[in-house]
Specification:
single chain, about 250 residues, mainly alpha, three-stranded mixed β-sheet, about 60% helix
């Protein structure tokens, strides 16, 4: 296991059992809750997830076995409290692609991240509506979905830049009482051009050439016929709307 104070780096060859342990959806959720909200008992986590305390207790022990979590300081001697050992689980996409278990883990982890985003959006909206968040959070909050054209190198640079800036801002705001936990999700998913798009483009080009090759008078007539059909369509639409309002 490669790790530092804040990051757990998984390797598909060395951490096969840990990867398998982390593919369980409830374990991913429990680990996320401990990272987001801090130490908790199995009973507290059961209440938050809707599971039984016996179930959360079992899955917490599995997470502890593979060093994702550890026992925290107890408020009393009655029940164990658990804490996350790292704030981030990380891996190399290239390494994960080399094994079936690695590919399965990455696919599941990404889908769980999307589910986390959906839950976080619902919680954000509820917190804002209930006045648990100040109005200063309204303007900077949000989700953006852009589609820039980038090279693989540029996408890597973008992620590195965002990660570096996020680390800088997190350190700066660590002791600021105005700071809140922020769910920050970034995705960079290249989309290959589909073959049907190229065929469709070629078909349009062929149709344009056919129109250009026709006699100018034919094209003029065709335009008038199209106009007439459009007028008929508009008239029909008007009559239908009229009938609906009665």
């Amino acid at each position: 296991m490669d790790s530092d104070e804040h990051k757990r780096v998984l390797d598909p060859e060395r951490d096969t059992a840990a990867l398998k342990a982390l593919t369980h959806p409830l374990r991913i959720q429990l680990l996320g809750l401990l990272r987001q909200d801090g130490p908790a008992t199995a009973s507290e986590l059961a209440a938050r997830t809707g599971e039984s305390s016996a179930s959360t207790s079992y899955h917490l022990r599995v997470l502890a076995k593979y060093a994702f979590i550890a026992e925290a300081e107890h408020r009393d001697g009655r029940e164990r409290r658990w804490r996350a050992l790292h704030t981030v689980t990380s891996w190399s996409n290239e390494s994960m692609e080399s094994t079936e278990a690695g590919r399965a883990f990455v696919g599941l982890a990404r889908r769980r991240q999307i589910e986390h985003l959906e839950r976080s959006l619902a919680r954000y909206e509820a917190d804002l509506a209930a006045g648990r968040l100040g109005q200063e959070w309204v303007e900077p909050s949000g989700i953006t979905d852009l589609m820039p054209r980038l090279t693989a190198a540029s996408l890597t640079e973008l992620f590195d830049t965002v990660a570096g800036k996020l680390e800088e801002l997190t350190a700066r705001d660590a002791d600021d009482p105005r700071a809140e936990h922020v769910v920050f999700v970034a995705a960079g998913l290249p989309l290959a051009a589909h073959e049907y798009a190229a065929h469709e483009h070629a078909a349009h080009e062929h149709a344009d050439r056919e129109t250009q090759d026709r006699d100018p008078e034919d094209r003029e007539t065709e335009g008038r016929e199209t106009e007439d059909r459009d007028s008929e369509d508009r008239d029909t639409s008007d009559h239908e709307s009229e009938d609906l309002t009665r």
